[in-house]
Amino acid sequence: MPLKIRLARAGSKKRPYYHVVVADARSPRDGRFIESLGSWNPLLPKDGERVKVDADRVKHWLSHGAQPTDRVLRFLDEAGIAKREVRSNPKKAEPGKKAQERAALLKKAQEDVAAAVAAAAVAPAEAEAATAE
Fold first, then answer.
1. Mind telling me which HAMAP family this protein's record contains (predicted)?
2. Is 114 exposed, middle or buried (0-12, 13-18, 19+ CB in 10 A)?
3. At 102, is the secondary structure helix, strand, or coil?
4. Distances (CA, A) of 55 to 36, 51, 71, 105, 132
5. What 3-state class would DSSP assign to 44?
6. Which residues touch 20 (CB under 8 Å, ≥6 apart)?
């Protein structure tokens, strides 16, 4: 039986509140669970007590092979119970392929306009120089 330490949603509509539970991975999110280990209230300020976790019970379940989900692992890392590997995805902030193509076309058009303006500015100066001679 694969065990997960995960969040089970409680609370009303648009007022989320989560319980940190140990459950069989095959059971539904808000369904049957084995034990409640704590809670998370995302509506509280970040400097307050948003997350409450029973550290001894979490360590017990981790020693019995329970795998925390990513969000729960973040909480456990903050509490110093488990270590979470830092992820880095530098390409996440880059625009998509089509947006990059549009940006390249816009840049090329701006360069063409700038070159045309520069050529137009040089042409009258050359004409004045030719008439002055």
1. Ribosomal_bS16 (MF_00385)
2. exposed
3. helix
4. 12, 12, 16, 56, 90
5. coil
6. 5, 6, 7, 36, 37, 38, 39, 40, 51, 53, 72, 75
Rounded CA separation 20/69 (Å): 10
Q: Band the pLDDT of 127: cuts 50, 70, 90.
A: low
Strands 3-12 and 67-68: parallel
Joined tokens for residue 48: 């307050």
Q: What pLDDT shows up at residue 132?
A: 62
pLDDT in tens, 83-123: 988 888 888 888 899 999 999 999 999 999 999 988 887 76
Q: Which tokens sit at 8?
A: 């089970």
